[in-house]
Specification:
Radius of gyration: 16 Å
Helix content: 10-25%
Low-confidence stretches: none
Length: 197
Amino acid sequence: MLPLMEEFYTIQGEGANSGQAAYFIRVGGCDVGCHWCDVKESWDASLHPLTITDSIIENATKHEAKAVVVTGGEPSMYNLEYITKQLHQKGVKTFIETSGAYPLTGKWDWICLSPKKTAQPLSEIFSKANELKVIVHNKDDFNWAEKNAEKVGSTCKLYLQPEWSKRNEMMPLIVDYVMAHPKWNVSLQTHKYMGIP
């Protein structure tokens, strides 16, 4: 069972897989505590009903896109071996978005590591990350991004994403930074521009 906050079929809005259809599973529970978090209602796991994992899997496999994104909250707080095994048996690719603050469980086709200063990633997650997505809230976040980029593998895709409430202020800085450091890419929360979940 997982504390399910919400589940929905939509278009992935961020990072390397932006623009692709996927079923999102948002679990409740997070103690990372980012002050700019746009889903603070996910933090308290007790507010979200414990849901039988098989029913979540059944809902996820009803849709055309055979891709599931597990996010939160912080999904790595839970053992995700069962859900990923069952999804793979049904031909569904598995994606996770995590801060890396907890050990990773489950088998993942794509791991998006989005490190947070308030609870830094465990060292073992860096080598597993397919994508490093750093949220830029202020100028110091560029230094934070570089420190984390030094730890990931050579094939890991690097993204800088403006924190939504600061996007107008941070976007010009990100554009300049990426042009000066082209190993980085820009990630936007395109789902917010599209007006979809």
